[in-house]
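Internal ticket #5521
Category: modeling
Description: The requester needs a full-assembly model to guide mutagenesis choices. All entity lines are attached below as received. Residue total reported by intake: 643.
Assigned to: D.W.
Attached entities:
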Amino acid sequence: MPSLFYEEYFPVWIALFVSIFLSIIIFTLSYILAIQNPDTEKLSSYECGFDPYEDARNTFDIRFYLVAILFIIFDLEAVFFFPWAISLSHITSWGFWTMIDFIIELALGFFYAWKIGALEWE
Amino acid sequence: MLFLLLSIVLIISAILVISAQNPVHSVFFLVLVFLTSAFSLFLLEIEFVSLLFVLVYVGAIAVLFLFVVMMLDIKVTKQEKDFMIYLPMGSFLGLIFFLEIFLTLQENFVPFLPLSGRELYINWLNCIDSLTNIKVLGQLLYTYYFPFFLIAGIVLLVAMVGAIVLTLNFTQKAKHQFVFRQILREKKNSIYLIK
Amino acid sequence: MLVLTILKILSVVVIVLIGVAYFTLAERKIMGTIQRRKGPNVVGFQGLLQPLADGLKLFVKESILPSNANKTLFILAPMLTFGLSLIGWVVIPFGESLVLADINVGILYLLAVSALGVYGIILAGWSSNSKYAFLGALRSAAQMVSYEVSIGFILITVVLCSGSFNLSSIVLAQEKVWFCVPHLPMFVLFFISALAETNRHPFDLPEAEAELVSGYNVEYSAMGFALFFLGEYANMLLMSALTAILFLGGWLPLLDIFPFTIIPNSVWFGLKIGGFVVLFIVMRACLPRFRYDQLMSLGWKVFLPFSLGWLILTASVLMSFNWLPN
């Protein structure tokens, strides 16, 4: 059933396919047309002239993980804001104060993170 | 038809998530699962939720998984042994999950759109189409379902505190640079005689 | 229907790519001027054909697939970055009803596309299996993720004032006054976040030449590199366009009186984007690079609380004076 909804989104899907197609075309054409002349030194990973002596996939600082988890939480908070922002005129002050309560809950967490030093990078 | 195809892709990639040898590959299959489920939500004309799937699950949660998997530095897992250990507990949890789904299917989630009874002859489609699903969500979530919304906030708070407590290593102390202290430093308060 | 849509999309894509090409030329020329050099001036009149020559050069170079890289993901990463930078343009209104897909959740769509943009970088860094690439990708991902939070809150502030997620209606809501007047701090914050989101100077730590050589795309050559490059610059253009739409009234003329209304709407939009492009370049030429801890604390300790506070302030003011749009 082709409804108005699908008609609205039709260009988005076409654009998706066009961009995928375009990037594949560009890459393969360049790969085919250019002269490929690989050798071992050329294909080894670049480390400013040194031989790479160990695997590059190392463990790294746990703070990146913390940033990711804080991002999830604040992203979810932002997501809860979206329907609120668009329907604030219909939900009266009750909806407004519900959101303020929600913000206070998260602000508590934010201040905790700040005070304990989770946002510090040395 | 398209929906069926998508479901097949979804299930295949979900199986690949748990059977892939390289954990990073399995996270990428997880991303594929999220994307296909977002697309099937789109086919149900729930554009807002489907974009949220991309935004939250793919853009945030899968990024976290990737970070963790990269950080743990696992090359290839050996899973034949683990599989049997986790099977009973996993299937038990899965059973509970499906039971919950079947129970909630009985409930009607949208209170203003009763599916049976005298309203059967009203063309509800017009009523739905006049509001976008994002507006419907907004008008219900913050008024009618506000306790759930506030509980969600508390869950997020607990998640944040828990993550910080688990990950933060309190012993690490690096030397900090205090710009104002450097600027305030003068001859008369930095040069003094030691007897 | 299908053919027409494809043609429309291709026309937008071609315009974006030409825009990117001349963005790079403008960058080299303006930076040259700031540093009292001439910039490229050999190929074509005053170097006008330089970007095309660069593109051709990259096209016929050898594509190197590093021996210990994960080949599939290594090839996929630049394609993903390039493709994502193009599909965002579908919802951008270039003029009144001059938009490919007038969807009513346009802002969310753009946010989702930019959230997916992290993947191109993580994929590139991880699949290259090189230390510099890996470190660059990590830094870049953490940085983009941090600034996306405040971008989200700023977008909500704008949505609150216009009452719609549709980009065209956001522009139309600014007919009386552009949002950069009441929301001047958010306008500045959004532009700075856009700089960080696109890994641009002064937040270009992922590509810091002095320490990481080139960041996540060290291992890429030829078209792989070119696709990353095109994707990044197209993203910068997209962010400029978004800033213009959200805060500078998109295609609306400066004042709705005679001498300004002669210029067509889409030209106004182009002029605004061009202004931001120049600002991007001047920022690169003038500002030193941030340190990583400064970058993170700016994102989390300044931008996040400030944008959230401004959001609450806006909501309260709109609520108490009953100014909310329906």
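Resolution: model delivered.
Comment from assignee: Residues 4-33 of chain A form the longest helix (30 residues).
Ticket closed.
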